[in-house]
Amino acid sequence: MNAFQSNSRKVRIALIQGREQGSAQADLDYTIDRIREAANAGAQIICTQELFNTPYFCRTQDPDLFDLAEPIPGATTQALEVVAAELGVVIVASLFERRAAGVYHNTAAVIDADGRYLGKYRKMHIPQDPGFEEKFYFTPGDLGYKVWDTKFGKISVLICWDQWYPEAARMAALAGAEIIFYPTAIGWLPEEKAELGVAQHTAWEMVQRGHAVANGCYVAAVNRTGVEGDTEFWGQSFVADFYGQIVERAPVENEYILMADCDLKALEDMRRIWPFFRDRRIDSYANVTKRMIDE
Q: Where is the CN hydrolase domain (predicted)?
């Protein structure tokens, strides 16, 4: 059972920053071992990196790679349900979902601490860049922005490219999220790193820290590490609090279990003194649903 017990509104979370291990079974075994380590250290909510049991296959367009997809719920979520119930932890697992022939999603499954499958989120924003050929593989999500009231707190999950969109974080927070998890696979391409590497990483981290402030919530981003093809994943998984302060940050190169304690009572106190939601002028935002405000 969990070693971390508290009567306060504190929750300990863990982010599993890892490398691809060579096969789906090896990735699953590796991740379950890391979940056990995190739980033994007191973690209560544990989140994987994006597409944790596959390589980051979106570097190229290859129809055969659709064979990596699986139904959700399915065998992987069932294995994680057993682990969640045994350890008494909430698990957020990012997977490649096969919905139907020709329809596939980048999806995160949420499992509560009693082993119940609570549901899934399908990535809404799909990028298309050199080395990130995701529009070839993923149908945009259609389940909306979801929040789950888990044993240890109200959480939402957004995925990687969703990180750049303040609307997504806002929708999650308005639905009650206290912690937003972002399973991620982002890194440097060799032709860009020298000139843009620092700027790219700074933008990635800063925009998410801004989401934490604007929405009065914790943000937890969990990235890959290591090199796959030409992509050097930059690791540096982190947790930011509701002031945008970095609570914990992982290194660039290493596999790492990032642990952070989130104070949900302090979060509520902050929302009381900075009541951003109260002061929203919802009557003035109609144009945000337009592609551009140019006519």
A: 11-264
